[in-house]
Amino acid sequence: ELKVEQNPLFLSMQEGKNYTIYCNYSTTSDRLYWYRQDPGKSLESLFVLLSNGAVKQEGRLMASLDTKARLSTLHITAAVHDLSATYFCAVVNSGYSTLTFGKGTMLLVSP
Amino acid sequence: DAMVIQNPRYQVTQFGKPVTLSCSQTLNHNVMYWYQQKSSQAPKLLFHYYDKDFNNEADTPDNFQSRRPNTSFCFLDIRSPGLGDAAMYLCATSLQRGGYEQYFGPGTRLTVT
User: Fold this and answer.
1) Measured between alpha carbons, how far is B90 from B85 in angstroms, rounded to an integer?
2) Cβ separation of B107 and A41 shorter than 8 Å?
3) What pLDDT is recorded for position A102?
4) Does domain B4-106 have CATH number 2.60.40.10?
5) CA-nearest residue of chain A to B87?
6) A4-110 architecture in CATH?
7) Cis peptide upstream of residue B8 (ω within 30 degrees of 0)
8) Residue extents of the structural domains in chain B
9) Which of B41, B39, B20 is CA-nearest to residue B91?
10) pLDDT above 80 (res B107)
11) For B101, which DSSP code?
């Protein structure tokens, strides 16, 4: 059974600081997604990582995937308040074609 | 714009009173998913349709049913809602199975009184 672990589950940052969210998963998969969710809202797709070594960047967020280590990271550079949200990673269950989500990281960026 | 639409956005039902949530899509995707998301938790997949093929998750309670009358529409029926069924229900679609990107609707917030 595929298990997905995110850490930290809660992250309080000051504006301008850098930090990394980690997503580990337990079985082989070659596709991973990062989503953002604002309070009371639905999920917004941020990144699709399709292969080992994949790196995607959008603004202050950069995501990477290491399939050998079964690890993805979401790096935040010079955080701003608008990045405050919950971030989920989701891993494709090979053979089942469904997603297993991590528990999410609640990010709070304060001045 | 192509999109995933959910109705209603907010639904209040009484304990034990059947309720139906609706999802429609203009993306012409083959796969439609229903997730349940409780407060401060990750979305949990209830079931999905690949075309007309229904796939139930092993731990989805029998109280939850789904129908997909055509490509565009999918319904979630809760036969006898309990207080523990209060949650956000998210519909998502993908072009195919096999890990294709899922596109989420805005969700329906269900309250059970």
Assistant:
1) 13
2) yes
3) 96
4) yes
5) A40
6) Sandwich (2.60)
7) yes
8) 4-106
9) B20
10) yes
11) P
Check A98 against B104: CB less than 8 A apart. Answer: no
Instruction: Check the CA dihedral A77-A80-A82-A87 and report its sign.
Output: positive
Query: What pLDDT sits at residue A96?
Result: 64
**pLDDT on residue A74:** 98
Q: What is the pLDDT of residues B6-29, one digit of tens each?
A: 999 999 999 999 999 999 999 999
Domain ranges for chain A: 4-110
Residues in chain B: 113
Q: Do A48 and B107 touch (CB under 8 A)?
A: no
Average pLDDT over residues B53-75: 95
Degrees to nearest 5, angle at CA B36 with B71 and B38 = 155
Q: Is the Cβ pair B104, A43 closer than 8 Å?
A: yes
> Who among B90, B99, B107 is closest to A92 (CB)?
B99
| Neighboring chain B residues of A46 at a CB cutoff of 8 Å | none
Residues of A in contact with B45 (CB under 8 A): 98-99
Nearest-CA distance B29 → chain A (Å): 15
What does the pLDDT average to over A53-77? 95
| DSSP annotation of B100 | P
Query: Which phi and psi (to 5°) does residue B84 adopt?
Result: -75, -5
CB contact under 8 Å between A42 and B104, yes or no, is yes
Taking contacts as CB-CB distances below 8 angstroms, the residues of chain B near A102 are 42
Residue A30 has pLDDT above 80, yes or no: no
Tell me what pLDDT residue B1 has.
67
Please check whether residue A91 is in contact with residue A2, taking contact to mean a CB–CB distance below 8 angstroms. yes
